[in-house]
Amino acid sequence: MAGPTTAERGERKRGTEPARPPGPTGRRRLRLPSPRMRRVLLVSLVAAALLGGGGGWLLYGSQWLRVEHVGTSGTRVLSPEEVRDAAAVPVGAPLISVDTDAIEDRLRRKLPRIDSVDVVRSWPRGIGLKVTERKPVLLLPDGGKFVEVDAKAVRFATVARAPKGVPTLEWAAGRSPSLSRFGTGRLLRAAVRVVGDLPDAVARDTRTVKVRSYDSISLELTEGRTVAWGSSGKGQAKAASLTALMKAAPGAGHFDVTAPTAPAASGS
């Protein structure tokens, strides 16, 4: 059996031992932070807690960020006072806690004239109500008053006086099968589509939209002129044909675009 080498004998003579491998577990001793590092960590944690608590108090507990005024914009028929009353914004409440979605829902429910509304926080102490009102495109006579109908066929308000430039809808369906088959709702939507497709010049002169059936809608214009429109389909083609027909026969009293590829004009 071979004995120790010359190098090992020299190591022993100098009182040194060869390096020992790590223990069986191979674990290293964890070094704890120094006292100075522990103080830094403690101060950081305390500062974070103070800042968090201070921020919460500033948003919810202080008098600085509370609702003091409510502004409105976009109103045309409604008054700002009507909008503010319906919104019922909790003045004095923390601005951060105001439920803007609930205010929007409340406004649309209480004021059907409102088509859309955006409720925004105006820091540091205000709430803004940005309103978009519905615009009438048709009027339904109702016992001396008028029900306003918008471009979505929504009946949203009853007014005592007819707004200028808005045509009146005349039901002439009588006992037409269209009335029982489609109902007034669908016929109303068809009339609204016709109004939306009218050329601007014709829309300005339209006084009455007469609905006899789903396929028979006509217009009464200024100066006693009439237009047979037919159904609400092919609206753009009919509008183009009507524009060309009126230019070609400016003195005509009746225009027929029920078949837009073969329009006709008659009368004087």
Features of the shown structure:
single chain; 268 residues; alpha/beta; Rossmann fold; 2 domains; 6-stranded mixed sheet; elongated
Task: Explain what this protein looks like in three dimensions.
The structure is a single chain. The chain is of the alpha/beta class and 268 residues long. It folds into two domains: 69-133, membrane protein fhac (Ubiquitin-like (UB roll), Roll); 138-266, Rossmann fold (3-Layer(aba) Sandwich), CATH 3.40.50. It is built from seven helices and twelve strands. The protein has a six-stranded mixed beta sheet. A three-stranded mixed beta sheet has the order 1-3-2. The protein has a three-stranded antiparallel beta sheet with strand order 4-5-6, with no helix packed on it. A hairpin with a 2-residue loop joins strand 4 and strand 5 (145-149). The longest helix has 27 residues, at 35-61. The protein starts with 5 loop residues before the first helix and ends with a strand. The mean pLDDT is 84.
